[in-house]
# Entry
Amino acid sequence: MVAKSKEALENRRRATLERGRATTRLGADIGAVGNPVNPERREACRLDLAKFLVEYFPQSTGLSPFSADHLRVIGRVQDCILRGGRFINAVYRGFAKSTISENSLIWAVLYGHRRFGAIFAAEADLAAKAISSIKLELAENDQLAEDFPEVCVAVRALEGKPQRCLSQTCGGEHTHIRWNADSIVLPTIAGSVASGAIIMSRGLTGSILGLRHKSPDGKQNRPDFVIVDDPQTRESAASPVQVTKRLDILSKSVMKLAGHTRSIACVINATVIQVDDMVDQLLDQRKYPAYQGERIPMVRAWSKSHEELWLNKYREIRNTFDKSVVGDQARAHRDANAFYLSNRDAMDDGCEVSWASCFDPETEHSAIQHAYNALIDDGEEVFASEFQQAPLVNDAKGAALASDDVRSRVVNVPRWIVPSGMDTVTAFVDVQEKLLYWAVVAWGQQFRGHVVAYGTYPDQQRTYYTLRDARKTLAKAAGGTGIEAAIHAGLERVAAELLDREISRESDDAVLRVGQLFVDANWAQTAGVVRDFARRSQWGPRVLPTHGRFVGASGSTLSDRKPDKGERVGANWRTSTIHKQRHVLYDTNSWKTFLAARMKLPTPDPLAFTIHAGHHDMLTEHLTAEYPTRVEARGRVVDEWRLFPGRDNHWLDCLVGAAVAASYVGVSAVGANGAAPAPPRRTISKEQMAAKRAELLARLGR
# Structure
């Protein structure tokens, strides 16, 4: 009886479990997916991407009529999806390129044109936004749900809960749908051409090697189509190193995702930010002949009244308002609108814009007016890059040091070795809150210069970094002390490393030392720290604080004022005494112009500036971070140097400061030899001093 009772209990338990499994299977099954509501519409869009974008996305790509430029861009995307190839479309802000990219990827997988599509963005957060947008359309777009039920019914059944994917079935068969943060696998439904199609998103600089997905049948799927949507940021576009890095990722990683047995199709939809950025280079047919595409400007032809009515009268009306009065700018804009409407025929005459629908109907009356408002409000330089895809290249920026100018400086002399013919060594430390940047430079006759070594303290132990992302900081190296104490401790370490070091010369094995070390004291918060460090330095006058001065064309030169007693005046520098501490003031503009001229000389020239052997990508970025603008005022012509936005220039400041230090110790650009390097200061203990005093008194018979 007991055995029978146990058996009955076990049978009831098994029956209960089976009923539970059946209920679970029934609850997870999406049932029949049905047929398209409008099969004619679906079929009409199968080979017509532009029609698909209009018909199925009425609130985004179907909101305004496409321009002829849009249709060409969309045609390239369609051709790439259907037949493959590499395409690049450089378009202006507001062209809806990101939405076109996302919706085109949906078209590619829903119709089975592509099995595995990946979308890449400049950064991971932008890639996350892209796939979130695609998910929203698949889950909420009613037009898609009507005509693609085999996909959208399964997606909607998830109700946004990825954990339901594992149990979802259709007619008792698992759909194998996936709904992850950075990837989607469309449901496997009998008869669906989209079954198992994959969409993934990634940031271009993130982890993309080995991007693949294993399907239930064991097949390894690799991407066969990629859309690269705006692959650069403003910061990366301004950095030659980051531009090169992203181009390498595109060429060596993204374009190799399909493996060796199949070519990957690629479309890049982007905006040119500045000359020689990633997109600008990809559009160069000589550098990247495999890419087809064009630059699409917002304005193809300016108005015949461009100067007289738009940039003269209209601009004056739009910009004439009292900034202190709330609402007066809006009043000025209304007045400008009234002027435009009164003169519209004349102001529109001859102007051709890319997209007639590109304007704000609440504040503007046409795309032409919108374009001119952008030009007037943002300026010619911004408009040229953001809207015209043709960043300005003016003579001033063209005169700046280029990457090739710096790379051609490298000679086969090891680091920390002085080339023959040079006998003076100087150094400079650029003080920042997180790091100390330093450089050591050797000098010969007529200011021939050579970078012996450069670096930072603390050493970041990386080949590339910016001040902003420095991991090992002065504060961490000093054990979490305050800024002033951390900088003082850092200066002690750097000065000892540079001033006590014996540096060999390649020709005769002569031993040289840094004769003069200048330390940047421009930062007001730490100027006192630098002065105190120099005043108490065991190396005496070999260490001096300095202040770089921006002397423009309209300013007074450093030699305009006669030196006070004990002060010195040199080539665009002078000494001064602050708080009983000698300083060196120097004209940064004139010394940067001098250094740039020397770095543009070919290396065989006896006066050329050179750099020790090795790879110098980060140094190159610093030395090319500024550009000159030639300014004339008060009878003076000056190249005024300014920083490209978002760039680091600290080693440029170091080389300039080291050059000033060389002039300070006697190196001349007009033929004088370098001064002999200063000997290291000898330190004597109190006991030694007392013994010497006793010896002297004994000699004197006292």
Q: What stands out?
A: The mean pLDDT is 88. The longest strand covers residues 422-431.
